[in-house]
């Protein structure tokens, strides 16, 4: 038998059992892809992150993310969770960690009670509402956008937070739009600049609790609409989560959030 460590971290929240849970497995080297996918399926969380230490010349760790069904190119909450594990277990004296990922080098810094992630900006272009999407989502968006960099998600803009809260999409109908995921967003109220919910049935996730990578799409959109570089966002899932964004306009953006560890243990791998 082979044993590997596993940590479960709730991301984008300071409260246990809120935010978005991610599993993090530090490894001496990557296991076969089919094993990594099987572990992610066993965990049955929206993401399982695997990190392998590097020599530090270009990055500190290689990071990969798996949903229960597929490997993905970018994941915010599991990056936050991986950094939390590095800062609290692997390199407690460090305040910065660099991850080599399918989306390039992603840097995370420890900033008091928050972790600050450097992520790419993902721009969108307006498209016609796809036939059948209104029925699948259960409510007509005011506009639909698609990522210009080949991003897998559609951005659906709605009229109010109340509409976002009431959405009850038909997951079976949304699967007909493979490979897309669906980011539903609306302008917020009070001190909340914008709100969202995210649905990824084509990636094994009916609704994601808090989606960092989706804010790489929503953040630039709302920054332009609201004329603000610093934004506060809330994801209105059942578990909920808060994100602080800074979008300076240089093709990169900062996503900050809190995290809390809720579980640690070992996975037994048959050999």
Keywords:
single chain, 18 strands, 2 domains, Diaminopimelate Epimerase, Chain A, domain 1, 18-stranded mixed β-sheet, alpha+beta, globular
Sequence-ordered SSE layout with sheet pairings:
Blueprint lengths: L1 E10 L8 E8 L5 H11 L3 E7 L7 E6 L4 E2 L3 H15 L5 E6 L2 E8 L2 E7 L3 E4 L5 H5 L5 E5 L5 E5 L3 H6 L4 H4 L6 E7 L6 E7 L4 E4 L6 H12 L3 E6 L5 E6 L5 E6 L1 E11 L2
Parallel strand pairs: 2-3, 4-6, 11-12, 13-15
Antiparallel strand pairs: 1-2, 1-18, 3-4, 4-5, 6-7, 7-8, 8-17, 9-10, 10-11, 12-13, 13-14, 15-16, 16-17
Written overview of the protein:
This protein is an alpha+beta fold and 271 residues long. The chain folds into two domains: 2-110 and 257-269, Diaminopimelate Epimerase, Chain A, domain 1, CATH 3.10.310; 124-250, Diaminopimelate Epimerase, Chain A, domain 1. The protein is 20% helix and 42% strand. It is built from six helices and 18 strands. It has helices at residues 33-43, 76-90, 133-137, 161-166, 171-174, 215-226, and strands at residues 2-11, 20-27, 47-53, 61-66, 71-72, 96-101, 104-111, 114-120, 124-127, 143-147, 153-157, 181-187, 194-200, 205-208, 230-235, 241-246, 252-257, 259-269. The chain has an 18-stranded mixed beta sheet that branches. A hairpin with a 6-residue loop joins strand 12 (181-187) and strand 13. The relative contact order is 0.20.
């Amino acid at each position: 038998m082979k044993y590997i460590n596993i940590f479960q971290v709730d991301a984008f929240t300071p409260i246990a059992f809120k935010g978005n849970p991610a599993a993090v497995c530090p490894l001496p080297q990557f296991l076969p892809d089919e094993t990594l996918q099987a572990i992610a399926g066993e965990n049955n969380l929206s993401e399982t992150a695997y990190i392998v230490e590097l020599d530090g010349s270009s990055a500190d760790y290689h990071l990969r993310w798996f949903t229960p069904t597929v490997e993905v190119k970018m994941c915010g909450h599991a990056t936050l969770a991986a950094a939390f594990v590095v800062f609290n277990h692997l390199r407690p004296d460090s305040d910065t960690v660099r991850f080599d990922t399918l989306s390039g080098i992603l840097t995370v810094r420890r900033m008091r009670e928050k972790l600050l992630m450097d992520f790419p900006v993902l721009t969108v272009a307006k498209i016609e509402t796809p036939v059948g999407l209104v029925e699948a989502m259960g409510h007509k968006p005011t506009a639909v956008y698609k990522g210009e960099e080949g991003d897998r998600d559609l951005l659906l803009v709605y009229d109010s937070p109340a509409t976002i809260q009431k959405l009850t999409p038909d997951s079976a109908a949304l699967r007909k739009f493979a490979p897309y995921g669906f980011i539903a967003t609306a302008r917020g109220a009070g001190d909340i600049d914008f709100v969202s919910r995210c649905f990824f049935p084509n990636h094994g996730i009916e609704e994601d609790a808090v989606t960092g990578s989706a804010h790489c799409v929503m953040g630039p959109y709302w920054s332009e609409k609201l004329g603000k570089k610093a934004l506060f966002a809330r994801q209105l899932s059942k578990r909920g989560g808060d994100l602080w964004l800074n979008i300076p306009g240089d093709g990169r953006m900062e996503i900050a959030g809190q995290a809390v560890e809720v579980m640690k243990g070992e996975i037994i791998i048959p050999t």
